[in-house]
Design a protein that fits this description.
By secondary structure, the protein is mainly alpha-helical. The protein is built from 5 helices and 4 strands, in the order αααβαβββα.
Length: about 200
């Protein structure tokens, strides 16, 4: 059985061969979890449409396996595309910003959004949430292979930011609860004192 250090090293080498689109079409939430699943033997090497046949062959060579066709259940291989927002139709809802796994969309609530072309992985995750269908996919200028490290870094940075924001929200909610509990406790004491004074006045 492979120990943790060996599995981690293998997962790193597998992850280095994945396109880092973070598209979830493999059935995992990002490229790294898919790499870890391959390393552990949980899943197969042919579930990544963006990587296509070339990616499958690279993984097969790394793992000493025979290559196999892309699993059609995960999608079809096609030339790389990037997202394009029709800025005249965009209503500034921010749903695409929230969906983008690499923070490649700029904008604010009720303001026009735009895609950072050099950062877009072509994952298509921004399309479904858009309520006005103002996002389309257009042909990319390259196959994305030169950007994989950049995509990974942006995904990691976004994940860290979201985790930090979630921790800050949890801490703020906990602080509010503590303050409310303290206030309620104080009110209970004051009410008891008032009742005692009322009783004393009634007796005198």
């Amino acid at each position: 059985m492979r120990n943790f250090a060996q599995s981690s090293t293998l997962a790193d080498r597998i992850d280095a061969l994945l396109p880092q689109t973070q598209c979830t079409r493999c059935g995992y939430p990002a490229c790294r979890p898919y790499a870890e699943a391959i390393a552990s033997g949980e899943t197969d090497i042919n579930h990544c449409p963006p990587g296509g046949a070339a990616g499958i062959h690279a993984l097969a060579n790394l793992l000493g396996r025979a290559p196999k066709p892309l699993n059609p259940a995960n999608g079809l291989e096609k030339p790389r595309e990037i997202a394009l927002i029709d800025e005249e139709v965009c209503i500034g809802c921010t749903k695409c910003i929230q969906a983008c796994p690499v923070d490649a969309i700029l904008g604010a609530s009720k303001m026009m959004h735009t895609v950072l072309v050099e950062e877009c992985t072509g994952c298509e995750l921004c399309i479904a949430p858009c309520p006005v269908d103002c996002i389309s996919m257009v042909a990319a200028r390259d196959d994305g292979s030169i950007h994989t490290a950049q995509y990974r870094e942006r995904y990691t940075a976004r994940s860290a930011r979201l985790a930090r924001e979630e921790a800050e929200r949890a801490a703020e909610l906990a602080a509010r609860k503590t303050a409310l509990d303290s206030g309620a406790s104080g009110n209970t004491v004051l009410a008891a004192i008032a009742r005692a004074k009322t009783k004393k006045s009634a007796k005198s």
